[in-house]
Amino acid sequence: MEERRVTMIVNGEPRTADVEPRILLAHFIREVLGMTGTHIGCDTTNCGVCTVLCDGLPIKSCTMFAVMMDGHEITTVEGLGMSSELHPIQQGFRQEHGLQCGFCTPGMMMASKALLAENINPTEEDIRWALAGNLCRCTGYQNIVKAVIWAAEKMRSETAVSR
Amino acid sequence: MYPSRFHYEAPRSLEEAFDLLRTYGDEAKVIAGGQSLIPLMKLRFASIGVLIDLNTIPGLDYLDVGPDGSLHIGALCRHRTLEYSDMLRSKQPTISATAPLISDPMVRTRGTLVGSLCHADPQGDWASVMLALDGEIIAAGPDGERTIPTSQFVVGPFQNSLRPGEIAVGARVPAPRGTPVGTYLKLERRVGDFATVGVAVALDMSGGSVVRAGIALTGVGANNIKATAAEQALVGSALNAGTIEQAARLAAEAAQPKSDVRGSATYKRHVVHTFVTRALTSREARAA
């Protein structure tokens, strides 16, 4: 079985492994690295529950081979925040009840993180466009949008305070 | 779920890629964005022996305007780059309008226009845009480069005319012969779906008159359709209610839609008519 060495920075830490070229980034993150916050849903590149950031930009980790990420930076939901110190996006999803079953939530939050990195004051339309690749079966999206608006305001006020 | 086993190569130059293609022949396939290829591999519709990664080759991600005014899009230029390009909004509004309508934000981070053309999905959006813009593919091989007009590049469903050993390294859109005006209108049931109907309109306007017209249709035929009669009816004319209605009618006649889950043939033909009218009646079109 042919394996190839791959090294990527995952949530700030270099991680190296020998893997088959055909292993998807989503499986690499979950099974090789043991980080199960990134989910696998549709198998058809539709649902977005597998969304992670690659060099800060949102990608579907189910539609990427791990070997292609050699030398790249990956951010997963585990790198967003911790229960002792939630990221404003995580706080927002909590405050605004932006989840029910939670299956889509990591993907939603990672896509939101990418949006807020480029636009810290998004309109509702901006948010819906940015999350267009992430499906939710539970919430009807209303509270997800509210959660991102809440997070954006929190992040804007934190930036203002630190100036 | 998993693709079947394959060998992976990450060449650092085009020359290395050509050597790999020569070595592995039919077994090998190149990958750029992979947003169409990887799903096929996961479903095992594509069984590839050797995957050659183009992402590790520098210098293929360009997006620029040449000294002659032609637009050059490199093989690794992502949909996202096209979407965010301010330059493109004025230089090639049709491309600018299409990019945000391709699939979803994550797919646009990785997917490429050139890769999409090579994939030659008959329901794909970019082939219509390139037909409307008289765009070409730049194919490179060990023996040199050649340009292939879009109509000769996409030769069938999922079939392009690249020769063995050739790689599509970029796309080229000729310089506009006037002020470029245009858009892409896409009706889809939801984001990420294929177009129920897509219409690319690209005009070169000068002195209130149409110097060059490009109109092409997605999702209303076995492949992307260039609405030649509609185009020819516009050239040399001003845009007014009469010429717009004529173009819309001719474009609708050029469509060959099939009734399916996305809508009836009558409905789709009507949408073609509506979209062409809307594109030609836009503020930009009237101002040029």
Walk me through this protein's architecture.
The complex is a heterodimer of chains A (163) and B (288). With 163 residues, chain A is of the alpha+beta class. Chain A folds into two domains: 4-79, Ubiquitin-like (UB roll) (Roll), CATH 3.10.20; 88-162, [2Fe-2S]-binding domain (DNA polymerase, domain 1, Orthogonal Bundle), CATH 1.10.150. In chain A, 36% of the residues lie in helices and 15% in strands. In chain A, strands 2-1-5-3-4 form a five-stranded mixed β-sheet, with helices on both faces. Chain B has 288 residues and is α+β, with helices and mostly antiparallel strands. Chain B contains 13 helices and 14 strands. Chain B folds into three domains: 7-53, Uridine Diphospho-n-acetylenolpyruvylglucosamine Reductase, domain 2 (2-Layer Sandwich), CATH 3.30.43.10; 63-173, Uridine Diphospho-n-acetylenolpyruvylglucosamine Reductase, domain 3, CATH 3.30.465.10; 179-283, CO dehydrogenase flavoprotein, C-terminal domain (Enolase-like, domain 1, 2-Layer Sandwich). The interface between A and B is medium-sized, with 32 and 31 residues.
- Portion of residues within helices of chain B: 25-40%
The total strand number of chain B stands at: 14
Question: First CA to last CA of chain A: what distance?
Answer: 55 Å
Q: Please bin the fraction of helical residues of chain A.
A: 25-40%
Describe, in short, the structure shown:
The complex is a heterodimer of chains A (163) and B (288). Chain A is α+β, with helices and mostly antiparallel strands and 163 residues long.
List keywords for this structure.
heterodimer, A: 163 residues, alpha+beta, 5-stranded mixed sheet, B: 288 residues, Enolase-like, domain 1, 3 domains, 5-stranded antiparallel sheet, 4-stranded antiparallel sheet
What's the helix and strand layout?
The complex is a heterodimer of chains A (163) and B (288).
Chain A: E1 4-10, E2 13-19, H1 25-32, E3 51-54, E4 57-60, E5 73-75, H2 88-95, H3 105-118, H4 124-130, H5 142-162
Parallel strand pairs in A: 1-5
Antiparallel strand pairs in A: 1-2, 3-4, 3-5
Chain B: E1 7-9, H1 14-24, E2 28-31, H2 37-42, E3 50-53, E4 63-65, E5 71-74, H3 79-84, H4 86-91, H5 93-98, H6 105-110, H7 113-119, H8 126-132, E6 136-141, E7 144-149, H9 150-153, E8 154-156, E9 159-160, E10 167-173, E11 179-187, E12 197-206, E13 209-218, E14 225-226, H10 228-234, H11 241-254, H12 265-280, H13 283-287
Parallel strand pairs in B: 1-3, 2-3
Antiparallel strand pairs in B: 4-5, 5-10, 6-7, 6-10, 8-9, 11-12, 12-13, 13-14
